[in-house]
């Protein structure tokens, strides 16, 4: 990206999230980010399928493209002891130069979540990475306040908060809540749009369906995105997390899909200037 957070429309570098092209592998995702004109990219790491050869190939393609790796995902904390694969995801991300690691939790024990999150932060911090906890109704860290409590309990400088506007809205959060977050906890943010009223908070299947299939192009829905942007740090990098069945159907080619997403995002960002 021109250095993180300094390029892109309106001063915001934009990164292609892996969820925009979920049916494609890491090399195709990088190629799509290049074709779409993104400033950076994010990669999904599936430990069972990811080999040392995958790391070498992805690292080489990133270097060839001159494309920074904004984040890798997903470390999904679950009940029980910390999964060694979670540390491996961090190590793979570090080898490729990732700035951030995306973490969610489905462990209902907040103390256990905080302890495991602290171990992830210690591991990532040694490698110069931020460990970003995402909250949402689809996890057991459902709100921004719960996420901040876990981060505070972990007490590690590598800990970070990841805000996604759809999860902020569906969990009852507001742009004012984001504005109150200490700036150092927000190294990057996600961006997308959605309809005004989401699924019933108790409808887990509906929440998942909206999150993975029904997001809207940035600026084409009803979320208070301009207010969210004002609440975020200046020039913060944006991971465009636009999971959409409609987009997948309309743009089967990953590069064309990425370009449609980048173009819509930049049109929205231009309205903020």
Task: Describe what you observe in this structure.
By secondary structure, this protein is α/β, with parallel strands linked by helices. About 40% of the residues lie in helices and about 15% in strands. It has 11 helices and 8 strands. Strands 6-5-4-3-2-1-8-7 form an 8-stranded parallel β-sheet. β3 (about 70-75), α3 (about 85-95) and β4 form a beta-alpha-beta unit. The radius of gyration is 17 Å and the shape is globular. It starts with 13 loop residues before the first strand and ends with a helix.
Task: Jot down its keywords.
single chain, alpha/beta, eight-stranded parallel β-sheet, globular, disordered N terminus
Terminal CA distance reads 20 Å
> Uncertain runs with pLDDT below 50, 5 residues or more?
1-6
Enumerate the strands of the largest sheet in spatial order, edge to edge or round the barrel: 6-5-4-3-2-1-8-7
The quaternary organization reads as single chain
Q: Find the count of extended strands (DSSP E, 2+ residues).
A: 8
Give me the Rg, rounded.
17 Å
Helix content: 40-55%
Q: From the helix content, strand content and strand pairing, which structural class follows? A: alpha/beta
């Amino acid at each position: 990206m021109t250095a993180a957070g300094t390029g892109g429309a309106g001063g915001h570098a934009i990164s292609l999230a892996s969820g925009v092209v979920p049916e494609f592998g890491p090399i195709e995702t990088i190629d799509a980010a290049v074709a779409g004109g993104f400033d950076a990219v994010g990669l999904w790491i599936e430990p069972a399928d990811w080999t040392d050869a995958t790391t070498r190939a992805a690292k080489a393609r990133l270097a060839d493209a001159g494309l920074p790796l904004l984040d890798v995902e997903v470390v999904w904390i679950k009940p029980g002891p910390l999964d060694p694969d979670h540390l491996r995801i961090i190590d793979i991300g570090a080898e490729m130069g990732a700035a951030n690691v995306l973490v969610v939790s489905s462990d209902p024990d907040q103390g256990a979540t905080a302890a495991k999150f602290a171990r992830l932060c210690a591991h990532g911090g040694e490698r110069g990475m931020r460990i970003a906890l995402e909250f949402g109704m689809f996890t057991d860290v459902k709100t921004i306040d719960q996420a901040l409590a876990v981060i505070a309990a972990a007490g590690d400088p590598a800990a970070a908060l990841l805000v996604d506007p759809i999860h902020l809205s569906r969990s009852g959060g507001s742009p004012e809540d984001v504005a109150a977050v200490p700036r150092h906890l927000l190294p990057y943010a996600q961006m997308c749009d959605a309809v005004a009223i989401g699924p019933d908070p108790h409808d887990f299947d509906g929440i998942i369906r909206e999150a993975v299939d029904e997001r809207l192009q940035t600026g084409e829905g009803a979320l208070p995105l301009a207010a969210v942007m004002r609440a975020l740090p200046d020039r913060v990098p944006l991971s465009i997390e636009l999971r959409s069945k409609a987009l997948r159907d309309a743009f089967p080619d990953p590069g064309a899909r990425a370009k449609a997403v980048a173009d819509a995002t930049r049109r929205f960002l231009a309205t903020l200037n």
